[in-house]
Amino acid sequence: MPSAIETLIKVLKLERENNYNNRAVIGGMKKYSGNWQNQAHEQAKKPEQHILVDELYDLMQGYDDLDDMEARHNTVSYMMDRITKRTPAPEAYQARLGQYADAKPARPRREKRERKPKDAPPDRPPRAPHNEPDDSTPADGRLDIPPDAPLARPPRRPRKALDPQEAADILRGLNEDVSKISGVGPRITTALNKLGIHTINDLLFTLPRRYDDYTKLLYISRLTPDITATVIGTISHSQVRPDRKGRQNLYIELDDGSGILSITFFSGHYLSKQLRKGKQIVVRGKTGVYRNRVQMSNPEWEELDRDELKKAGIVPVYSLTEGMGARRLRQLIRGAVDYWADRLPDYVPEAVLERAELADLGWTVKNLHFPAGTDHLRHARRRYAFDQLLLLQLAILANRREWQSAPAHPVTVDDSWLADFTGACFPYPLTGAQTRAIADIRADIARDMPMNRLLQGDVGSGKTAVAVTAMAMAVAGGKQAALMAPTGILAEQHYRGIGQTLQNFPSEQKPVVALLTSSLTASERDSIYRGLADGSIDIVIGTHALIQSGVNFKELAVAIIDEQHRFGVEQRGALRGKGHNPHLLVMTATPIPRTMALTIYADLDLSVIDQMPPGRTPIETRVVLPSERERIYSFIKNQINNGRQAFIIHPLVEASDKIDAASAVEAYEHLSQVFFRHRVCLLHGKMKSAEKDAIMAAFAAGEYDIMVTTSVAEVGVDIPNASVIAIEGANRFGLAQLHQFRGRVGRGQHASYCMLIPDDATPETPDYLKAVKTFDDVKNPALPESVRRLRAMEMTNDGFKLAEIDWELRGAGDLVGTRQSGRGSLQIAEIMSPELVALAQQEARTLYEEDRHLTSDDHRLLKQRVDMLYQDGTDVS
To answer: pLDDT tens across 334-372, in order?
Structure first.
């Protein structure tokens, strides 16, 4: 039976659809409000729920007297906002909290009603809930909507009444092996497995990587440069041609009757047997001009599916592999969708879908793969994105509950000790944000419930000082602490810095700090193992070596993980397992908007260091066009001649046939000649860990003047002497990554500079750059996105501001990538808007608060779905 609040939501939505004519319920809102209030008060469990009921009752009492549609619209919208907690209670109602403070879970009715005989007629005829079948709805519950009809809101159909066990069995059937599908033999199974498709669930939810709209195809004669287009045509010419670099390129001409498109596949000679003259294909790529002819380079392509062409609709395009063609995969997925879509029980409670205005699961599955229109696809993707966020948060919250069910060792220090420690160990006053973070941690570790906290701070904001204080509190309480860093050189940097800081520890006996990395000798390692086991080592700092089987602590109380996104979930869990449920602090220098942080880290409490220590000079950032590269080199030479060092970042390690961008290896060879008087080194991700550490250590020691590197430099050691960073192909990076690169400089007392060099500059780029003057201009879709991102970098050094902008411009992909979650990795993160993330977060926390174990009848399927995705060995911690 739906709750009073759920029923009211349906009433309000029906009232809105009826254009606020006060006929959603018989007799109008005022008459309806009395009985509704009694029922709602009986169901309310908390004071704030009781005052919500009072306020909604008062609004319904006055609804009949509102004489214009706008006033009624505002009232209904406000009531929905109050129900979904988007708007806080007015002060007049908050003042009533006291009178409900002692309210019992179930409040008695205000007036006793006489019981009517069973055969007595009802006061009014029962009204069918919104979206249940009526005269306009077919008997099977399907909603017949023309394929090309625009959808302002997704259609809903009444749920079939399924036996709970039957529904659970159907959902469980999604875990069956894909080989159980008719027509799928060993060869096809092997091909599907290569695509990550092992079960029926995998097949249903392997989404297209793009969609080709066959209703909006362009003729070749209408193609213009610098657009991304999909074209259908027949190959009229195919030839392998060598170029000056020795590459065997495939050159084809595509004819659609209106014109000819030249296409080059660099190093694509192996495609010559597939792309033969007379074959009809579909290509999608960015257009360019070569010798006054429109052309494409390395476009995506597939053989034309005539059946899809006849339908003239939106065609899904999936990732493929050897042995699995596009047409065959589409057939398999269509068969699975046709069979399962109408059978799938919807695991999201109906009340949640009503509040969030989301589509049914079956309808969503159909339109994720074979959308009837662009609006259908938009609603389907929104529902699927919401589901992913909701399920992830519920799984994370369950992990938090389990993690905190076992007690931890409390660690307490008094105010005077903390004041003595910070005054003695830090030669500068802590910022207000650092002080707040330390207070959060101190309160957490003083309890027997294990701390599980995320410390988020921009590059150079002072996270390490907070971490040192947390470890010092553990030592002062007679316990041990550990810090795990992603690389040996970062661990060594922490070891030196933390050891030096703790020399001023306010006691006669200073903490014993050890460094544990894979570079130690066997005897050195064994000595540390013994010290950790007998408690003679207070603090250990290391890499993955900390989680090896031989490491045992006497009493590990505080475990800290630096740059947590560089570790897998198993590694984080292994460090937690080294102690008796230690207090855990994870740190990240990647700014994440608060709404997203509270979603992907729902199991963690959040502390944000949003202030920079005084005295730091902002890094001067400039967009510099490739034509001015000589000026850049001259500037770098001047900096080096003044004793400074420089980074030069490239998007690729080596030259690529598919991506037209400068590579670090090529640049190293070139810059070694440009800066022949200076010492140039090369660092990239394909090097072995020991080699990377050695080069970075040599650069930190001043043995090199210039480091040519790739994105491996996104997180690195402090180089206080580095004052300039030049980022080639800056348009290819997101704002969050660009900001991390920029953080490699500006760590000392020297003025520092960041130069952003786009490789997609056009003659119009200078004008575009001038047009972006404010943050509102950064959001202007009429201007090129890469230009807007680079100008945002020029306009602010605030990493959190940039993260918000990046989220709006590019979606949440980069943000959710900061949390590794195994099989539960999020798809279509690019459409996860701030509004959708906040909505999913609110619904997840509401469900968790109402039914933590999801054991109620309405939530059992939801729990089953969470377990299917996250509890079969997949950790989301």
So the answer is: 999 999 998 999 999 988 998 888 999 999 999 999 998
Collapsing DSSP to helix, strand or coil, 577 comes out as coil
Handedness of CA 159, 161, 163, 166 (dihedral sign): negative
The dihedral sign for the CA sequence 672, 674, 679, 685: negative
Q: Angle at the Cα of 325 (from 324 to 329), degrees rounded to 5?
A: 75
- CA 585 to chain CA centroid, Å, is 21
Q: What is the pTM of this model?
A: 0.69
Positive or negative CA dihedral for 224, 225, 228, 230? positive
The DSSP annotation for 92-134 comes to HHHGGGGGGTT--SSPPPSS--PPPPTTSPPSS---PPTTS--
Number of residues written out for the chain: 877
* 91 vs 94: CA distance, rounded Å: 5
Contact of 97 with 47, CB cutoff 8 Å: yes
3-state helix, strand, coil in the chain (%, to 5): 45, 15, 40
Q: Are 757 and 727 within 8 A, CB to CB?
A: yes
Between CA 631 and CA 649 the distance in angstroms is 17
Judged against a pLDDT cut of 60, whether residue 659 lies above it is answered with no
Q: Are 822 and 874 in contact (CB under 8 A)?
A: yes
Residues 42 and 106: beta-carbon distance below 8 Å: yes
Candidates 491, 474, 458; CA nearest to 561 is 491
Q: What residues pair up with 646 in beta bridges, in sequence order?
A: 706, 724
Q: Torsions phi, psi of 775, nearest 5?
A: -70, -25
Identity of the amino acid at 304: L
For residue 683 the two structure tokens come to 């660092």
| pLDDT tens, residue by residue, 63-98 | 988 878 888 988 988 888 888 777 788 888 888 887
